[in-house]
Design goal:
Layout (H helix, E strand, L loop, with lengths): L1 H16 L2 H12 L12 H18 L1 E2 L12 E6 L2 H7 L6 E2 L2 E8 L11 E4 L1 H9 L10 E4 L11 E5 L4 E6 H6 L3 E2 L1 H6 L2 E3 L1
Parallel strand pairs: 2-4, 2-5, 5-6, 6-7, 8-10
Antiparallel strand pairs: 1-9, 3-4, 7-8
Helix pairs in contact: 3-4
Length: 198
């Protein structure tokens, strides 16, 4: 957790000081392996959870939502976690931090039935993802960047799938679905994706 908090402090500094020419280099480091530590010191599950938390925070920084996705100019950017309390624990360090002109607000929910009316970023555990798609909720929730590790997540309308390969974590992006939801994904983020569905 100490190393994770250190990375968070670095990310806040980078948000303030990073120039456009170096932005891609930084997010490449954060999103494609900078948080994969020595496996002798950290269990695979703990590493995975840290990576997912860092991914979710950084996705929030490199996606734009339309004005109508918020009730007013002061509305917070909500990041909802369903069914994965450990990832939520790692994300708590980011709660109430600025994301450009908004404040990030975190919420944890045991099931999809308890979700609020609006989540701007929605992370679903494998079980929650299956229920989410089975209930057809991807069509109910507008302006949502949905994220999961479930294998067929994008086939059911999910936008980002986190993938763990043999030596690092990567992600796929369903750009067509994101555009349909009214979301604009940074070209820098798209360039780092393992696969982009257009």
């Amino acid at each position: 957790m100490k190393i994770f908090k250190s990375l968070f402090q670095q990310s806040k500094v980078k948000q303030l000081k990073t120039k456009p020419s170096t932005l891609k280099i930084w997010i490449s480091g954060v999103l494609t392996g900078a948080v994969l530590f020595n496996s002798a010191a950290y269990a695979d599950r703990e590493i995975d959870d840290q990576v997912k938390a860092m991914f979710l925070y950084n996705f929030s920084n490199f996606v734009d939502w339309p004005a109508e996705a918020f009730k007013n100019a002061d509305s917070q950017l909500t990041l909802c976690i369903v069914g994965d309390p450990i990832v939520m624990d790692y994300l708590r360090v980011f709660d109430e931090t600025p994301i450009r002109d908004r404040i990030l607000s975190l919420g944890y929910y045991e099931t999809i039935q308890t979700l609020p009316e609006q989540c701007h970023v929605l992370y679903l555990s494998a079980d929650a993802s299956t229920s989410f798609q089975a209930a057809g909720l991807s069509n109910k929730y507008g302006f949502v960047l949905s994220v999961s590790r479930e294998e067929k997540f994008m086939e059911g309308g999910g936008i980002v799938r986190i993938v763990r390969t043999s030596d690092q974590a990567e992600f796929d992006i369903n750009l067509a679905e994101a555009m349909e939801k009214g979301l604009f994904i940074s070209s820098d983020l798209l360039s780092l994706a393992r696969f982009v569905k257009r």
